[in-house]
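hey so u asked for the seq, here:
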Amino acid sequence: MKILVLNGPNLNLLGLREPELYGSRSYTELTNYVNQTAAELGLEVEQRQSNHEGVLVDWIQSALGTADAIVINPAAYTHTSVAILDALKAVALPAVEVHLTEPDERESFRRVSYAGLACEKRFAGQGFLSYRLALEYLREKNLECGMRNSE
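ran it, structure tokens below
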């Protein structure tokens, strides 16, 4: 199973940006954690990060025919991007939204997730573990679908 893991704006500044919210671990540490988790679960992941909405939309579209699912942390675009929502809906791949923090416990404007409208599951507020939970969820879903299809 191949999963495209997309990270939105400012995640490249992990460890520097608001460490009281996001912790002191770097973006490199996050990508290493995701790679290690994927290897443990027998998954293939491709990870990308961009601060640009259109680039994220292009990557979502490129997943069609090349990935089995998407894990996305749209970051600030969570609350603003209908374009990301529409791209996720267009490719119609299983998608899971992740966040390091819990948006529902932050500013009121962060409680709306456009991307989440196209995602079947959300893991938030658990730091790096949110990514692991998303990968485990997609792996389980894939295994269940495979068992149903073989019956």
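Residues 41 and 136 are 7 Å apart (CA to CA). The radius of gyration is 15 Å.
lmk if thats what u needed
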